[in-house]
């Protein structure tokens, strides 16, 4: 999809019909020609010649308006400066692709003149054109006080301004699509070539070729119709909601919602899902909206690829400033994301907020008892709308147009030279038919633009998408498949990507902090237990606990449970086999109520809650509880215990994910004693006030196991010449442990970490080695990387970028830890700037920016159910001793098939994640292998297509030039047979499958790479030598009176010999240039292709040996002069085959 965030817009006015350049000038020309040709008794020859010339020029000008937007503007429109007189606008995105001439409309509700481009409306904005997008960065307090559309006039103006909240997916007929296809430049050129061949009396060949072209275009049209039908099926039907309009709650369809509406969303009451798990069975959220009060549980798999349900809270609970007011602008994608519900995601559960002490005037509770939201964005401006636009306007180009242009341009040089040679020699012969001579020269030039090229490129894309779909990978930007074949660096998030989302609590480190000593979570003191029990954002839906897996593990370990909305209570002790019950959970014996949450923020790396006893008779007071990264909580502690840094670093080095726990009782600095138990009071308390003076309660240590097969995948990627990098928000020691476990880092090497200094610079520090530092020198980084594993902290990324030396750091560091989403983007940008082709693989939650910056972004849709099934299959595989990546793939495939029907959290294939171009329904990074293998296969297939077409065109140009002057001409049946054979071979080549294992060898990146170019030159030299020798071999047996090149075809020795030789050359070209191993299945394993080649080889050599007389008559072959000629010719065929085979092996 083009980047439409900024457009270059030029304004035009439509010309009157007679002033169009394809109407007025040609009307005058036709009138003049009519007068010149028919007014005189004898029409002049010049007029008779000019009539078809003008007709052809008129047709070309007309078609150019369909092929080129620039030509359409020149011919049918006139440039104007102001929007007042304009009727159309030429919209060109920043990347200069997909520009379109669109009609200009005018509507006061939309600010006057506007147009729609790629389903987005653009309006004039101070001399520039900008998207008509709702304001989503207004004051947060303003949104919280929204009262909906209070007048009918305001509602009508909003509807006219924003349009319906629906996806307008085109619904063309087959005829409309086919018209678009048959007027495309390549198709018109192909039909033109067929017409030229028919003029040269090749009727059968022309008709068969035309039928094949029409069939292929019709197939593409049906495929597009199915794709559009699938997109329309992705649209969710409108639902009935309540909207606050004219001061009252009124029912309306979700299609009628507009930005600024206040509406109510209710989750459907549904029974416990029989298949287990929380899936996408909730109500679909119809638009992007801000949750004003209450809480919601949503599944954002469509948006982020993260299938774990997320808890959302009302914006009234957002952080306050020092005065207790909601300050600042709404930040939808960062600070306030936890308050935003995105369109297309699923609302699993909704809990209305408690009545506020000062309710917003005219905003009573909705009749459906749903959560109250204010609409931010609708239609194609929503999150799901962006996904729809990505799919709808995705490009299928596989290699750049510049590469194709250079390829055709190079062939055109040879064709023009050959055509000029034929023209020069033909004009020397006074008896030569000038029309046939000119026709033949045109045929030589057109032969260098292979009519099969668009067909083969389209087949390559289609087959790649189908192959990825079978691997449970969905791609919304097909052109990126080829990038996967040219990858240099593969970057991975840690949690949810390399390691499982399901964490296990290893214990809690309590004071005094002693090395690796851990206490069980059920053995901690009451203060620590309160933090573990209440500091989370979990919710109970239909009796099932949903939310972050870390928090589920934390709550289970301490033995507490979510009793109801915002209430946690000690879980009933489980009864042991002996009949005794286990010890009761630690901490208070009564339930706790969460009065307020300060949600987790990635930039702060912590979250806090205010809790109090749930019983109104209990007046123990409120407590502030907090958990987060040790570095983030350290400045907030009133007293930092001895050994704080050493303890958490030791646990992190052991591979644990370490969270610091802290709390304090509420005091007068927060609120008066009588008001501390009120949630409304804490809403006004700034976060900085609540999180001051905390007391350390311990370190929570968790561990997430590696996903099955992760280490094997990394080994194969590294063995196939890919650098692998971890980019994570976790502690550098934890990240280092995982990187070494999966072999991204070398456990035998010492490691250096790039950290910032107090002065703002960066230094190298030994990992876990205390205060020893090494000065940073950007030029010495490559040499340093040879002796050490290099790691980098997120703050050092910013410092290195500011110093202009992030490039060498990004190229040589194996781990980037404590990296924020923005820092992840900067690392990918630095790798791209260094000329590397990058892949980023993550779960989509905090990796969206990096996934979009990488050439190949892969988001993994994690599923706990699938991960458990994968773990079982991995255990079985290891017991069987089924080693290697092939065995791993079989195990993973078996697990995925077993779990796919049972796991309701897996999204439908059509609902790809908006986070990245590639979305994997597999829970492991094994999908990266599938993408890279398919990418390499696609890339070498493109090079293979170009090589085959280049050789075919060069041989054809020689035959149509030099051999044509010798009277060599092919029969209509011969041309038809060769054409059908070529089409069949191309089709089978496109069906080649990638190998399951990656090779250390890297594929060539373009056809003009030295090796492919040398191969084409050497093979053409062999074929040219064989053709010259064939003509020399036939010369003694040709009659003295050479057959006229313009005459009708008649079988002769030279015609038959050249036909059989060129047919064998075609087979040799396919057999020698089929890439095979190590990037795709070998020719031997490609059974259909190898059998077809073998069968045709047998038939052609049998025809050359005279062993099949029926072939001679069918292929219009002449009898050989004698046995010696036959033997010499067979040797020539064999020599060409063996020589080309040897070259293919050598190059």
Characteristic terms for this protein:
1147 residues, Calcium-transporting ATPase, cytoplasmic transduction domain A, 7 domains, eleven-stranded mixed sheet, eight-stranded antiparallel sheet, 39 strands, 42% helix, ATP hydrolysis activity, magnesium, P-type ion transporter activity
Explain briefly what this protein structure is.
By secondary structure, the chain is of the alpha+beta class. It has 36 helices and 39 strands. Helix 12 runs antiparallel to helix 30.
Write up what this structure looks like.
The chain is an alpha+beta fold and 1147 residues long. The chain folds into seven domains: 7-131, no CATH class; 174-234; 240-391, Calcium-transporting ATPase, cytoplasmic transduction domain A; 488-499 and 706-854, 3-Layer(aba) Sandwich (Rossmann fold), CATH 3.40.50; 504-703, Calcium-transporting ATPase, cytoplasmic domain N, CATH 3.40.1110; 863-906; 936-1146. The protein contains 36 helices and 39 strands. Helix 13 runs antiparallel to helix 30 (926-965), helix 24 crosses helix 26 and helix 32 runs antiparallel to helix 33. The radius of gyration is 36 Å and the shape is globular. Mean pLDDT is 82; it is low at 270-281, 396-400, 882-886 and 888-911.
């Amino acid at each position: 999809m083009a980047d439409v965030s900024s457009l270059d817009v030029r304004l035009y006015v439509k010309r009157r019909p007679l002033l169009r350049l394809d109407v007025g000038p040609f009307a005058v020309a036709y009138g003049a020609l009519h007068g010149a040709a028919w007014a005189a008794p004898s029409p002049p020859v010049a007029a008779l010649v000019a009539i078809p010339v003008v007709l052809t020029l008129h047709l070309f000008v007309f078609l150019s308006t369909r092929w080129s937007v620039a030509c359409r503007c020149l011919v049918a429109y006139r440039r104007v400066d102001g929007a007042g007189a304009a009727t159309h606008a030429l919209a060109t995105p920043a990347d200069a692709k997909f520009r379109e001439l669109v009609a200009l409309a005018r509507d006061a509700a939309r600010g006057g003149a506007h147009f729609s481009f790629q389903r987005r409306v653009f309006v004039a904005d101070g001399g520039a054109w900008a998207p008509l997008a709702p304001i989503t960065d207004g004051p947060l307090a303003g949104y919280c006080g929204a009262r909906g559309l209070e007048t009918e006039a305001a509602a009508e103006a909003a509807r006219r301004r924003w349009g319906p909240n629906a996806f307008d997916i085109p619904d063309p007929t087959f005829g409309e699509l086919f018209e678009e296809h048959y007027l495309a430049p390549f198709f018109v050129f192909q039909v033109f070539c067929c017409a030229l061949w028919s003029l040269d009396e090749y009727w059968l060949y022309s008709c068969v070729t035309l039928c094949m072209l029409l069939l292929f275009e019709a197939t593409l049209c049906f495929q597009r119709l199915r794709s559009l039908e699938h997109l329309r099926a992705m649209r969710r039907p409108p639902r009935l909601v309540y909207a606050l309009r004219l001061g009252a709650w009124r029912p309306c369809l979700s299609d009628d919602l507009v930005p600024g509406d206040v509406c109510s969303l209710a989750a459907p009451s549904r029974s416990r899902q029989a298949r287990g798990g929380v899936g996408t069975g909730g109500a679909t959220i119809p638009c992007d909206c801000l949750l004003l009060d209450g809480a919601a549980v949503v599944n954002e798999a469509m948006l982020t690829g993260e299938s774990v349900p997320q808890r959302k809270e009302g914006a009234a609970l957002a952080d306050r400033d020092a005065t207790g007011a909601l300050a600042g602008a709404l930040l939808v994608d960062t600070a306030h994301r936890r308050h935003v519900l995105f369109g297309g995601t699923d609302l699993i559960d909704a809990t209305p907020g408690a009545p506020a002490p000062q309710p917003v005037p005219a905003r009573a509770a909705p009749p459906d008892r749903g959560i109250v939201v204010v609409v931010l964005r609708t239609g194609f401006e929503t999150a799901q709308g962006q996904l729809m636009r990505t799919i709808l306007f995705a490009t299928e180009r596989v290699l750049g147009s510049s590469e194709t242009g250079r390829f055709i341009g190079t062939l055109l040089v040879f064709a023009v030279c050959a055509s000029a040679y034929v023209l020069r020699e033909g004009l020397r012969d006074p008896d030569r038919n000038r029309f046939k001579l000119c026709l033949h020269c045109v045929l030589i030039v057109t032969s260098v633009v292979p009519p099969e090229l668009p067909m083969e490129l389209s087949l390559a894309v289609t087959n790649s998408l189908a192959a990825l779909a079978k691997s449970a990978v969905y791609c919304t930007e097909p052109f990126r498949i080829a990038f996967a074949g040219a990858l240099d660096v593969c970057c991975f998030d840690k949690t949810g990507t390399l390691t499982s989302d399901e964490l296990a609590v290893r214990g809690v480190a309590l004071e005094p902090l002693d090395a690796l000593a851990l206490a069980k979570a059920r053995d901690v003191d009451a203060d620590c237990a309160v933090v573990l029990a209440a500091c989370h954002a979990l919710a109970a839906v239909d009796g099932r606990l949903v939310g972050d897996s870390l928090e589920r593990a934390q709550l289970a370990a301490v033995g507490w449970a979510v009793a109801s909305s915002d209430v946690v209570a000690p879980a009933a002790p489980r009864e042991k086999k002996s009949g005794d019950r286990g010890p009761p959970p630690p901490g208070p014996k009564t339930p706790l109520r969460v009065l307020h949450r300060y949600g987790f923020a990635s930039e702060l790396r912590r979250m806090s809650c205010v809790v109090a006893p749930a019983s109104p008779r209990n007046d123990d007071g409120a407590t502030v509880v907090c958990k987060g990264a040790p570095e983030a909580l350290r400045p907030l502690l009133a007293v930092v215990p001895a050994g704080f840094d050493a303890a958490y670093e030791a646990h992190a080095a052991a591979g644990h994910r370490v969270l610091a726990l802290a709390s304090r009782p509420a005091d007068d600095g927060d609120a008066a004693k009588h008001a501390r138990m009120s949630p409304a009071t804490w809403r006004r308390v700034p976060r900085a006030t609540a999180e001051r003076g905390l007391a350390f309660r311990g370190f929570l240590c968790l561990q997430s196991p590696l996903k099955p097969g992760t280490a094997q995948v990394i080994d194969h990627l590294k063995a196939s010449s890919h650098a692998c990098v971890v980019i994570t928000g976790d502690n550098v020691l934890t990240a280092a442990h995982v990187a070494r476990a999966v072999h991204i880092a070398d456990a035998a090497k010492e490691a250096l970490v790039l950290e910032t200094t107090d002065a703002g610079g960066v230094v190298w520090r030994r990992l876990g080695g205390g205060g020893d530092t090494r000065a940073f020198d950007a030029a010495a980084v490559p040499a340093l990387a040879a002796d050490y594993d290099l790691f980098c902290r997120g703050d050092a990324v910013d410092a290195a970028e500011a110093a202009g030396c992030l490039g060498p750091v990004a190229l040589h560091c194996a781990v980037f830890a404590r990296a924020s989403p923005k820092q992840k983007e900067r690392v990918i940008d630095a790798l791209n700037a260094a000329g590397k082709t990058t892949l980023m693989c993550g779960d989509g939650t905090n990796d969206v920016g990096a996934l979009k910056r990488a050439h190949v972004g892969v988001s993994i849709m994690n599923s706990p159910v699938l991960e458990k099934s994968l773990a079982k299959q991995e255990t079985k595989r290891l017991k069987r001793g089924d080693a290697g990546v092939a065995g791993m793939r079989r195990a993973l495939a078996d697990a995925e098939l077993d779990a796919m029907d049972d796991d309701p959290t897996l999204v439908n294939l059509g609902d790809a994640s908006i986070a990245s171009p590639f979305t994997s329904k597999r829970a492991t990074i094994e999908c990266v292998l599938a993408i890279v293998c398919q990418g390499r296969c696609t890339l070498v297939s493109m090079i293979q297509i170009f090589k085959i077409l280049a050789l075919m065109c060069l041989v054809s140009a020689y035959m149509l030039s030099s051999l044509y002057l010798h009277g060599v001409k092919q029969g209509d049946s011969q041309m038809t047979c060769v054409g059908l054979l070529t089409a069949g071979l191309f089709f089978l080549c496109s069906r080649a499958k990638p190998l399951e294992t990656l090779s250390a060898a890297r594929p060539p990146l373009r056809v003009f790479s030295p090796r492919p170019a040398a191969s084409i030159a050497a093979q053409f030299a062999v074929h040219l030598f064989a053709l010259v020798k064939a003509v020399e071999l036939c010369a003694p047996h040709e009659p003295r009176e050479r057959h006229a090149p313009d005459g009708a075809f008649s079988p002769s020795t030279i015609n038959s010999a050249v036909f059989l030789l060129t047919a064998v050359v075609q087979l040799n070209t396919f057999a020698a240039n089929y890439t095979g191993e190590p990037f795709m299945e070998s020719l031997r394993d490609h059974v259909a292709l190898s059998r077809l080649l073998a069968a045709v080889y047998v038939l052609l050599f049998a025809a050359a040996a005279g062993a099949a007389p029926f072939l001679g008559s069918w292929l219009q072959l002449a009898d050989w002069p004698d046995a010696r000629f036959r033997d010499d010719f067979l040797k020539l065929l064999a020599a060409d085959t063996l020589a080309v085979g040897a070259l293919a092996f050598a190059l």
